[in-house]
Each structure stands twice: as C-alpha cells, then as structure tokens.
Backbone:
C-alpha cells in the first residue's frame, strides 16, 4: 500500500491508518483467496468438479468476483484513507476490560 | 442417531482447501500478535473502536452475531421448516435492533452502566447482581458447548474422528486461539469473518438455486415434497410448523410475542458484548447508528443462510428422504452436506475457513465473557476481595481452562438435539427473557425494589424451566409432555412465561418492600436521567443518511416489504 506514513510519523500527530486499515486486510485476504480460486477454476476444471456445481465453473466465477471486490476495496482505501488521531486512542485491553 | 449421521458425512478437503484455511488463520493470528505487541497506533485505533467508520462498527455488530450457531442453526431450521425460519430475522431481529438503536442506546450511552451485571449491581444491589452473574456464566458455558460441538462436527467431517476425540481437538484449537491472542484482534476478525462467510455462502446459494431450478423450482419442490404435509414450507406465515401450534392464530401470536418481542428484545437489548462496542463510538449518534446500520445486512443474511438450508432440504438425499418418510433427521448437518455436494475444492476451503473462524471466534468470545464475569463479578466480589490485579488474571486463566473443559460436556448435551435452534431458543428463554423483563422494568419504574430484582430473575427462570419440563421435547428426555408443546413453539411459550412470571413477581415483591432513594437512581432509571444526556448536541450537522432515526425508518419499511414479498 502506498500510504506508509504509519512508520515515519511520530506519536501524537495525525496520519493515515496505512497497512493496518481494516480495509487493507480485507482487500489483501479476499484478493489472495480470489486469485487462488481463479487458478483452481482454470487448471482444475475437470468434468466432475463442474458437474458438482450443476454445470457452472463455481471456482472461476467466485474467484473473479472476489478479485473485483478486492480491487474495489483497495481503491476505496487508497482514495479515502482513514485518519488516525493518536490522542483519541483507548488501548484495546482497556476496552476489553470495560466490556464486561 | 446423531453418530450414525456423522459417519456418513465426509468433506473431501484437499491441500488447497487446507492452505486457504491456514492463510486465514495466519492473518488473524498475526494481527492478534501485532495487537498484543502494540506495534502500531493505527492498529490500536481500529481495535479501540473509537471513531471507527460507521460501516465497520455496523458490520462488526452483525458479524459478532453471525457466528457458528447462526449459520448452522438457521440453515438447519431452513431445512426442517422452510420459509417460516425467515421470522428469526424479519420479526425476531430487525425490529429489536431498531428499538435498541432508537430507544435504548441513548439511555445506555447516557447512563454510566458498562455491563449488565454492573447495571444490576447499581440498580438492585448484590442479590440481583449475584443471580445475574451466575446465570450469565452458566449460559456462556452452555452456549460455548454448542459452538464447540459445531466445531467438532466440522473436524469430524474432515478427519473422520469420533465425536469425543474431535471435541477434545476442537477444545485444544480454541484454547490455543485464545492463548495466541486471537481475541485481541476482535474487530478485524469480525469484519474479515463477515466477508469470508459471504464469499462462501453466496456462491453456495447461487449454485444451489441453479441446481434446484431457481427460486420457483425450489418453491415447487417444497410444495410437492411429502414433507409439506408437516406444515407449509414455502410460505412464512402463519408458520404453524415452526411453532408446532395447531391453530394458525396462536402460531402468529407465538411468533410475534414470543419470538418477536420477548426473545428477540431480550437478546438484543441485554447483549452488552455488542452494545458495549457500539458505545465506544465517538458520540450518541454513532452509537445509535451501529445496530441500525447492522439491521440492513441482517435482513438480507437469511438469503444466504436460510435459503441454502431450504435447498439442502430438497437436494440432499438423506434429509429429503428422512423428511418424506418421517424418520429422525439430523438437520444440523444441512449446510455441511450441501457444501459437500455442491462446492468444488478451492471454494470448499473458503467455506471451511469461514465456518471454522465463526465457530472458533464464537466459542472464544463465550469463554472470555465467562472468564471476565467469573473473575471480576463472582470471584472478586464474593470470594476473595482486594487482591492484586495479577491474582485475578491468574484466576481468569484457570477459569478459561476450566470453562473449556466443562464446554466439552455441555457440547455432548448439545449433540443430543436434532435441531440445535430448538436447544438455543430454550436456553435464551431461560436466561434472556427474565433478564429483559427485570431490566426493562427496573429501567422505567423507579419504585421497583432491590428484593424484587433478584426475586423476579429467579422466579422468571424457574417459570421457563417449568414450562420446558412440562413440554414434549424442549429439554430432551427431561421433558414430560404434560403440555402439548413441541419444537420452537415450546421455547416461545417458555420465554413468554419467564417474562410474565418475572413481571408479576417483581411487581408483587415491590409492593411489600422498601424502594431505593431516588437520588441513587440517576443514570439507572429513565425518569431520573437528565434529558440532555440522551441527546446528541451535534445531531443537526449530520446528513440524512447519517441520521439514526431516518435510517431506522428506511430499515423498517424494507423489512415490512420483505415480510409481504415472502409471506
């Protein structure tokens, strides 16, 4: 991801969320899954696999769908980055403790 | 019978499927690890939940609930009862979520109560607090057992191990997940889980529909199948097969009042694990928006959960034949069997990753909720006070291990049910319905006394247990059959009984005991809470699509349209 400002900026200043933006993780995971499915759909499309899904290459089409989704989420992350203001951060543990 | 069905279900997973599952867990555990090491304040930002974009809070809210039991249980319900299962979403969830967002959330936000046991302690004192903490802990261990059983049945269908061995392996998996920090990245897990589950279930539904000849083909097969003599499967109202009531009128009453009011309002408005996350938002409007935004995905989730179950009901041989012949069928496997019959290797891995993630995260959340209530609300309050923090952390570790071991046994209890939803709804009736009654009464009626608090809870639960024992099958072999109630109708009646008994006892006890002074009730009772605490001063700056009440209105209209379209 291009916005790697996370690493350089010191604490206390506003910056973009970078690699830890939850959308980056979504897009990476779904993208990898999608690519694996597209490859599976292209190389492992024996009659039996297609038959199972009622004549549709389910891996291929789902894979394409997932890759498109991943690209859209990545674009969204890139065009509209989330700004992190460290002064508003409550640490995760405190929240977990307060949860109950 | 359960074991016999398990023997036949084998998922033919290959290297690629296991690899996809491994990738998923690697990502989740890496984020968990990074969160524990505090490597980046961006990570802290997302995990703290503060100032999160509304869509993230909304998705996390719905995903925390789209766990294991929901996918397997609702698919099982769809396979057994068909379209009436939709009521669990359009009657039994969305209205309560909107009520939570519009009415309850401002009160929670304005009050200083941060958990249900804490609210009970400050509103009613120790009696109600102890009763609530114990019943909450018991409920968590029982529900953890359901999650563990489901996790084990996936392990069983992959590896073919016997149930008890699969249970122990599943328990070890969950313990290592908790130990390796899986729970510390909860927000990431929930949002990721949502997308992975949709990525698996959406193609499953589309391919399944393709195989049965589309929606019309599915409806035709449901109407034509001999099973429809059991009840109407292809239309949602009056749902006599779901409730088990002979009279359509009482069936509708049971669904609307038992499921739609007591069970679902009880579940959603007292579910502080989810409420708390929404309350971490930056202002009242954002907190109110979380359940309201979540109601939109929630109302469409049944199309990828219940519909595959219905497809399995006509497509999977063992289920459709069992339904036709009236034999005992294990519906819990419906979605796994459809996955086996439909998804090619690759997609199978995505489905496994989604399901395993949901079961594991669900059980880990139950265990950790148990752990917190046990260490801080029970052990610290009533057993050993004033020890250093490290002491209670240690108690918590042992509680985690203990609860996991106990969950192996409650999982065996759960394995006795052909349809886990029957079991779960019974549990919700025992625990959530009385809690909701006491909560709502204590919130709006300032005279209600401390004694009434715990007496209402105890008698409400006893009332529900009594109904379950008198019913035909709500408690398995413990039920006597004195009342002609079966299936989920029995749990709706039990929940209704719990609610009514709780209210009656609370009112009666209040009449003869001394109320708390009014000045101690600020922030705990609606009429004593300053109105300014319930409003968002910046509400006028929001766009229409950010306004909670307007969104709630749109959601309500949509859910009514869905009810009419699929009536």
Residues:
């Amino acid at each position: 991801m291009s916005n790697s400002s996370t690493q350089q900026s010191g604490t206390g200043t506003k910056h973009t969320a970078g690699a830890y933006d939850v959308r980056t993780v979504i897009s990476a995971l779904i993208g990898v899954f999608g690519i694996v499915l597209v490859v599976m759909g292209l190389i492992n499309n024996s009659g039996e696999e297609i038959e199972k899904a009622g004549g549709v290459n389910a891996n291929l089409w789902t894979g394409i769908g997932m890759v498109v989704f991943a690209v859209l989420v990545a674009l969204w992350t890139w065009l509209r980055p989330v700004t992190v203001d460290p002064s508003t951060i409550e640490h995760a543990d405190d929240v977990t403790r307060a949860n109950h | 019978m359960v074991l016999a069905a398990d023997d036949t279900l084998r998922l033919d997973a290959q290297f690629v499927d296991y690899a996809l599952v491994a990738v998923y867990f690697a990502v989740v555990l890496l984020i968990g690890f990074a969160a524990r090491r505090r490597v980046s304040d961006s990570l802290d930002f997302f995990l703290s939940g503060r100032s999160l974009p509304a869509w993230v809070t909304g998705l996390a809210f719905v995903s925390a609930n789209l766990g294991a039991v929901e996918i397997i249980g609702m698919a099982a319900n769809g396979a057994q009862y068909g379209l009436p299962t939709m009521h669990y979403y359009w009657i039994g969830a969305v209205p309560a979520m909107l009520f939570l967002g519009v009415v309850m959330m401002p009160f929670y936000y304005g009050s200083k109560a941060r958990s249900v046991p804490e609210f009970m302690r400050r509103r009613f004192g120790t009696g109600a607090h102890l009763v609530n903490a114990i019943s909450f802990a018991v409920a968590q261990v029982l529900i953890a057992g359901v999650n563990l059983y489901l996790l084990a049945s996936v392990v069983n269908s992959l590896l073919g191990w016997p149930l008890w061995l699969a249970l122990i392996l599943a328990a070890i998996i969950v313990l290592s997940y908790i130990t390796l920090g899986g729970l510390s990245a909860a927000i990431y897990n929930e949002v990721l889980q949502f997308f992975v589950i949709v990525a698996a279930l959406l193609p499953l539904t589309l391919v399944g529909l393709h195989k049965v000849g589309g929606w019309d083909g599915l409806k035709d097969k449901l109407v034509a199948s001999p099973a429809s003599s059991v009840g109407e499967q292809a239309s949602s109202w009056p749902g006599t097969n779901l409730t088990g009531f002979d009279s359509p009128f009482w069936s509708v009453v049971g669904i609307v009042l038992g499921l739609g009011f007591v069970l679902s309002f009880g579940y959603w408005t007292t579910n502080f694990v989810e409420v708390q996350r929404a309350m971490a938002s930056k202002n009242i409007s954002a907190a109110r928006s979380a359940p309201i935004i979540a109601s939109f995905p929630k109302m469409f989730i049944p199309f990828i959960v219940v519909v595959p179950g219905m497809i399995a009901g006509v497509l999977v041989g063992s289920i459709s034949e069992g339904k036709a012949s009236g034999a005992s069928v294990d519906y819990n496997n419906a979605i796994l069997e459809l996955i086996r019959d439909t998804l090619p290797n690759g997609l199978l891995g995505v489905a496994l990753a989604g399901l395993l993630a949901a079961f594991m995260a669900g059980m880990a959340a139950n265990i950790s909720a148990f752990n917190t209530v046990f260490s801080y609300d029970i052990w610290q309050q009533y057993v050993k006070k004033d020890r250093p923090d490290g002491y209670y952390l240690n108690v918590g570790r042992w509680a985690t291990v203990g609860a996991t071991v106990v969950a192996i046994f409650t999982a065996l209890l759960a394995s006795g049910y052909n349809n886990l939803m029957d079991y779960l709804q019974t549990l919700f009736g025992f625990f959530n319905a009385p809690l909701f009654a006491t909560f709502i009464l204590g919130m709006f009626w300032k005279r209600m006394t401390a004694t009434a608090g715990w007496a209402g809870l105890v008698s409400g639960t006893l009332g529900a247990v009594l109904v379950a024992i008198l019913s035909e099958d709500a408690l398995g072999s413990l039920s006597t059959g004195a009342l002609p109630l079966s299936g989920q109708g029995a749990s709706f009646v039990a929940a209704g009984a719990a609610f009514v008994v709780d209210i009656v006892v609370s009112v009666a006890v209040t009449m003869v005991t001394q109320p708390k002074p009014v000045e101690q009730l600020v922030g705990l009772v609606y009429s004593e809470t300053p109105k300014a605490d319930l409003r968002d001063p910046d509400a006028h700056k929001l766009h229409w699509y950010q306004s909670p009440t307007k969104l709630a209105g749109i959601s309500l209209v949509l859910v009514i349209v869905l009810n009419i379209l699929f009536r």
